[in-house]
Design brief:
The protein is of the alpha/beta class and about 220 residues long. The chain contains 9 helices and 8 strands. Strand 5 and strand 6 form a beta hairpin. Bound molecules: adenosine monophosphate (AMP).
Length: about 220
């Protein structure tokens, strides 16, 4: 199964990705995670990406498209993948179509998580993520049993550096202006699966799997 998941920052992409990756036994490829790893490894790409990420801006397309092309060319992606956080604008969506054509891979579904801006703002500032398994928590609405510790794997929880009030506005602005138009792009390709993300994580995942499995194009 070759899938991508899109939605505003804080719409629950990461949480769904962890479950979908296990459900379909496919690699989870998050461009945000790739950049965060490059930053912690202090690579040239990481240092360059950091200046954009800290401001809540998009890393330039040339860099991002290249990273995705290299990762999707790896052998484990032939059988399937879940792309998370890419594409984020129309140029990236077209670049992805070209990359997949070259690799002879057909995208099965583009999952779109629908949610209102005011809900994601609250979610982002209270979001915590497991440093080990990537599971998402919320210190108000989805607290871990033990503060700062992942319920599932015992990893320590951290707050992303760009999950601040200051960057949220910029990230939502970019999402609404640059990322939203790709919903139409995938709708026209007939592979769009839209799900209401303002529900419990279990219900959101159930809705995604039901819709992906009943999509005639798959
Ligand atoms: P995410 O974890 O998906 O929210 O991504 C964190 C940050 O990484 C974003 O705010 C961007 O600065 C950068 N980033 C991730 N994916 C992309 C992409 N497809 N294009 C450009 N920048 C990206």
């Amino acid at each position: 199964m070759h899938l991508l998941i899109m939605g505003a920052p804080g719409s629950g992409k990461g949480t769904c990705a962890v479950e979908l990756k296990n459900h379909y036994s496919i690699p989870h490829i998050s461009t945000g995670d790739i950049f965060r790893k490059a930053i912690s490894d202090k690579t040239t790409t990481g240092l360059l990406a950091q200046s954009y990420i800290d401001k809540g801006q998009l890393v330039p397309d040339e860099i991002t498209n290249q990273i995705v092309k290299e990762r999707l060319s790896e052998k484990d992606c032939q059988k399937g993948f879940l792309l998370d956080g890419f594409p984020r604008n129309l140029e990236q969506a077209k670049a992805l179509s070209n990359i997949l054509n070259e690799l002879n891979i057909k995208l099965d579904a583009a999952i779109n998580l629908e949610i209102e801006d005011k809900i994601v703002e609250e979610r982002i500032v209270n979001r915590r993520i497991c440093s080990k398994c990537g599971r998402g928590y919320n210190i108000i609405s989805l607290k871990p049993k033990i503060e700062g510790i992942c319920d599932v794997c015992g990893g320590s929880l951290y707050q992303r550096k760009d999950d601040t009030k200051e960057t949220i506005e910029e990230r939502l602005h970019i999402y609404n202006n640059q990322t939203k138009p790709i919903i139409t792009y995938y709708n026209e390709l007939g592979i769009l699966v839209s799900v209401n993300s303002n529900q419990t994580p279990q219900k959101v995942i159930e809705d995604i799997i039901n819709q992906v499995n009943s999509n005639d194009n798959i």
